[in-house]
Fold this protein.
Amino acid sequence: MIISLIEKKKHGQELTWDEIHRMIDAYVQKQIPDYQMSAFLMAVWFQGMTMEETFALTDAMIHSGKVLDLHDLEGVSCDKHSTGGVGDKTSLVLVPLVAACGGVVAKMSGRGLGHTGGTIDKLESIPGFQTTMEPECFKQIVKQVHAAIIGQSSDFVVADQLLYALRDVTGTIDSIPLIASSIMSKKIAAGSDVILLDVKYGEGAFMKTKEEAVKLAECMCQIGKRFNRKMQSVISNMNEPLGLAIGNALEVKEAIETLHGKGPKDFQTLCQEEAAILLHMADLVSSKEEGIEKTRVALENDQAFFKFLEMVTAQGGDASFVLDPSRLPKAAYVTDLYSKKTGTISTLHALSLGLLAMELGAGRKKKGEAIDPSVGIVLTHKQGEYVDEDTCLAHIHSNHILDDKWIQKFYESIEIK
Ligand code: URA
């Protein structure tokens, strides 16, 4: 059967709902070998998929594992998904912020891979924080606290786990129907009614141009609507890192500062903006502007911070590390690197800074590798800011002495004109 489907796709013909379902079921049951599925994925990469095919693929993936039903929770459950980037710690702030403003957020997040970080790795820098639990326990926390973040369990969307690993090694990641069905199958299986997508573009993101990001966002919104989800998307730039911190515990620290209303401006603005959209989508405010005002108050009076504390405690984390973030894992060395030039920072290359943080141990090259929560880069400036020769550009947190090659690459990742 699979050979005829590969042939059909190779010649740009449309597969039926039934054909796609049978193929995905057979692949999950190991009746189709990886080499044939790889050929099919490559045919999709070249020929694309119609929306009907993309809906069918999403549906087949959703039903390849457990599906969470959140309808017995009080209130509209909200979720947000970022396509990932460097320094993207948005979920750590957004989830408690929306909950502090009256929303219910049940979030399933991923781990970092390559230059992009993952929310689950960041949260695990807080000692005791549990990112795996039974669905009933997760729902109980959402019921009590109105906010919870867990990792994707291996029982959910089994087909995506298998296909993603295969795409990763066959050059078939960057295909809009494959990315859209992969992300949306996980979002729909996670059960929320309201979904906000943050689709990033730029050198630190999957989508290199804004046009591609818009196409991906449109495709994902269409899928969500087909599955009766309320959908909205924002398109945001990932040419420079988000905020100033890159690295797990360092990003948790920055998220906590932001929850006190003292975060880097670009990061805090994005968190408030996205929280306001979710509150509006969930009909908790009558306009986005009202949502922004509500989030401003929740940050100013520490309601969002206390919600984070409540969530961390409910998930088994040691609250004392949130109350005193200086206790979070610390690296052996902190090296300050100074500007060699006077001028304006024209580019902070997100991709190379992400890769440099990964080299320090903040990220993993391969799935399953251990990471070091303590290491990373804390920038002191953003693009467009003026620096002179003795200005410190960044504090580098490492567990070994930095070598010359690493330092050289760091200077190459910051352009000053
Ligand atoms: N993230 C996903 O979950 N899937 C993709 O295909 C790409 C990014």
